[in-house]
Specification:
It comes from Roseospira visakhapatnamensis. This is Diguanylate cyclase (GGDEF)-like protein/PAS domain S-box-containing protein. The protein is built from twelve helices and ten strands. About 50% of the residues lie in helices and about 20% in strands. The termini are far apart. An eight-stranded mixed barrel has the order 1-2-4-5-6-7-8-9, surrounded by four helices. It is an alpha/beta fold. It binds ligand C2E and magnesium ion (MG) (3 copies). One magnesium ion binds next to loops.
Length: about 290
């Protein structure tokens, strides 16, 4: 808290330092401590193909707060981004995901790729690709075990540097997914310039896909666009049978959502991996 002898300046600070700003500062300090105390943990949400096979999972960070319980990322990722804490936080999520994947694999479970959300600040680091490479190497994992989820706006904003980093990641063999596809920039030119492997349809389009004709058309267009460019298409936020049936009919490749599984703590994700081994899916059915 800045206290000035100058009366005018002090008044300025006390007016501007409103409740919201103070709460943010407190949250930032709390988050900094949480990183040190290892209170940030990864949950994993399974992803299935249309035969019901477990084909991937998304790492989703949670804050296991000693007093407030489990806090979702929407409540602290924005503050992490504004404060720069997103760099150590994002690195922690990535390395935890690779450590978990490696442990499961060593326990004899199948190597199912993990998708990790990446923030703009992480992606803008000049040594980002090298950091990813060394993290994979440290855990003895092939690059194909990792997918990075970026957003449209990140690719547009970072420009030439983004192309360079993406090139390095692609050369490495890490797959790139565009998250929340359809909610960002409408310029599609970048899709053919960048080595993108997967489009992830935003859940806002999936929600009413079988009842709102605009969403029906948008989802169909995204699936066709992705397939025309040789990409795989994932639908997120699938909650109902009706949504799933529509998406399957339109040819979506992979589904993720509460209909199949919520994001799971590490131990429960391990159970899901075991179940995938014990009960291999039969064609045309879902879990
Ligand atoms: P996202 O990457 O688009 O993740 C999907 C969000 O949808 C997750 O929310 C997930 O729990 C939720 N979800 C999954 N299935 C369903 C469903 O069927 N219905 C509904 N309504 N929601 C579903 P979550 O875990 O709260 O994460 C929110 C956002 O926070 C993520 O959106 C992502 O942008 C960000 N985030 C999460 N973990 C990380 C991280 O490690 N790093 C960064 N930079 N961002 C993260
Ligand atoms: Mg995501
Ligand atoms: Mg998403
Ligand atoms: Mg989303």
């Amino acid at each position: 808290r800045v206290i000035r002898s100058d009366g005018e300046t002090y008044r300025f600070y006390s007016n501007e330092m409103n409740d919201e700003a103070q709460a943010r500062l407190a949250l930032e300090a709390d988050l900094r401590r949480a990183l040190e105390r290892r209170e940030l943990i990864n949950h994993y949400q399974p992803q299935y193909d249309m035969t019901g096979a477990l084909v991937g999972m998304e790492a989703l960070v949670r804050w296991q707060h000693p007093a407030r319980g489990l806090i979702s990322p929407g409540a602290f990722i924005p503050v992490a981004e504004e404060s720069g804490l997103i760099l150590p936080l994002g690195d922690r999520v990535l390395r935890q995901a690779l450590a978990d994947l490696s442990a499961w694999h060593q326990a004899g479970l199948p190597l199912v790729p993990v998708a990790v959300n990446i923030s703009a600040a992480q992606f803008a680091q000049t040594d980002f690709a090298e950091n990813v490479r060394s993290a994979l190497e440290q855990h003895g994992l092939p690059p194909s075990a990792l997918e990075l989820e970026l957003t449209e706006s990140m690719l547009m904003r970072e420009g030439e540097e983004a192309i360079r980093v993406l090139g390095q990641l692609s050369e490495l063999g890490v797959r790139i997914t565009i998250d929340d596809f359809g909610t960002g920039y409408s310029s599609l030119g970048y899709l053919k310039r960048f080595p993108v492997h997967t489009l992830k349809i935003d859940q806002s389009f999936v929600r009413h896909v079988h009842t709102d004709s605009n969403d029906t058309i948008i989802v169909r267009a995204i699936i066709n666009l992705g397939h025309s460019l040789g990409m795989s298409v994932v639908a997120e936020g699938v909650e109902t049978d009706e949504q799933f049936t529509y998406l399957r009919g339109e040819g979506a490749d992979v589904v993720q959502g509460f209909l199949f599984s919520r994001p799971l703590p590490r131990e429960e994700m391990e159970c899901a991996l075991r179940a995938a081994v014990d009960r291999p899916p039969s064609k045309g059915t879902m879990p």
